[in-house]
Write a structure and sequence with these properties.
Order of helices and strands: EHEHEHEEHEHEHEHEHEHHHEEEEE
Largest sheet: 7 strands, mixed
Number of helices: 11
CATH class of the largest domain: Alpha Beta
Strand order of the largest sheet: 7-6-8-9-10-14-15
Distance between the termini: 52 Å
Number of domains: 2
CATH architecture of the largest domain: 3-Layer(aba) Sandwich
Number of strands: 15
CATH superfamily of the largest domain: Response regulator
Length: 354
């Protein structure tokens, strides 16, 4: 009996740099999804295989590697969590030759044909969270600190416009290159500002460094901190002594008390054991990205990349709950539940649904 050709998925995640903090959970969650898909019979009988691609470094080089893999038929789909600067180079390279399922939160203007963006966008995450923080804890003046690339800058603009419309506002903004370890200049400006909240649009270990330095300077008594990009691995590295009045919003937290989330966490623990990286939003998003691929195959009855890449609307039942993706919507291609949470030592306490 002839063995069916494996369906190879390029899992594009950052293996170096500040965003690499998310990679261990992303890889294991994608591995779990792949194993479960194969136990259920694969994709129309074809076994799924992962090929890890480093999504860190120069976006042009990442795009060139993805183009090489697609052009040589080494991969049949692209899935992964990586920063928007990388997505903006990969998307036009792939452009409906194979499906590209982008799972990270992003600024919300992705309309490239063949790209299904399943992550959170400002209108369902950032804006409602800022409104919640204003209403519930009284934060009205914000200082924005972000990395210097498209997602932080466009998110900062969206935040400023939203806050202005509510009669609140941004008192200052500062952006730093990816890989920044010293935030003393920005922290000094925060200390001298009228801000009562810091909107952090920093990635991975850059955010860890900022949090630690923020606490060392005693700024916790002046400002609450909010980040739309913060997972349980980051929180563990920050430590409980530097995470007082830290808030986040995400479609998924490990502590999410829903049946879908609890079942997912149980399967993850059984498969990888107690020493596995903590579950968090970026990791779970890669699991959901693989489920999205399964739904594309179900919708089309095909496994060839060009047919799968033509689907622009899909509904996925995931650990975070239902995710509805409509690639024709530039501002918010994905509709999903988003939750507000606060740091509670090494985990999050889920406070509300936005």
């Amino acid at each position: 009996m002839t063995e069916l050709v494996p369906f190879v998925v390029a899992l594009v995640v950052p293996l170096t740099g500040p965003a690499s903090i998310y990679a261990p959970s992303c890889v294991l969650c994608a591995q779990l999804a792949t194993e479960e898909i194969n136990v259920a019979g694969g994709l129309l009988g074809r076994p799924v295989r992962l090929r890890i691609v480093d999504g860190s470094g120069d976006p042009e080089l990442v795009a060139a590697e993805v183009d090489r893999l697609v052009s040589r038929n080494h991969v049949a789909a692209i899935v992964g969590w990586h920063i928007s600067a990388v997505r903006r180079r990969v998307a036009p390279t792939v452009r409906r030759r194979v499906p590209y399922i982008y799972t990270a939160l992003h600024e919300g203007d992705e309309t490239t044909p063949g790209v299904l963006a399943t992550g959170e966008t400002p209108d369902i995450q950032l804006r409602p969270a800022l409104g919640w923080l204003s209403d519930e804890i009284g934060v009205r003046k914000w200082f924005v600190v972000g990395n210097d690339y498209v997602w932080p800058r466009q998110s900062a603009v969206a935040a400023a416009e939203f806050l202005h419309g509510r009669g609140t506002g941004v008192v200052d903004m500062r952006f730093a290159p990816l890989g920044t370890a010293d935030f003393r200049t920005a922290l000094d400006r925060i200390g001298r500002s009228r801000a009562t909240g810091v909107l952090m649009l920093l990635v991975g270990r850059d955010a860890v460094a900022f949090h630690r330095q923020f606490a060392e300077l005693g700024l916790e008594d002046q400002c609450a901190r909010f980040s739309p990009l913060m997972d349980e691995t980051m929180l563990a590295e920050i430590g409980p002594e530097a995470s007082r009045d830290v808030f986040s919003a995400s479609g998924y937290f490990e502590a999410l008390p829903t049946s879908e989330s609890l079942a997912f966490g149980s399967r993850y623990s059984r498969r990888f054991g107690p020493g596995a990286p903590p579950l968090g939003g970026p990791g779970e998003s890669c699991y959901t990205g693989l489920l999205t691929l399964v739904e594309l195959v179900r919708r089309t009855g095909r496994t060839d990349g060009e047919h799968l890449a033509r689907v622009d609307r899909v509904h996925v039942a995931s650990p975070r709950g239902p995710v509805h993706v409509d690639a024709s919507r530039a501002s918010a291609p994905a509709r999903q539940r988003v939750y507000m949470a606060t740091a509670d030592r090494l985990g999050f306490d889920v406070l509300d649904s936005l």
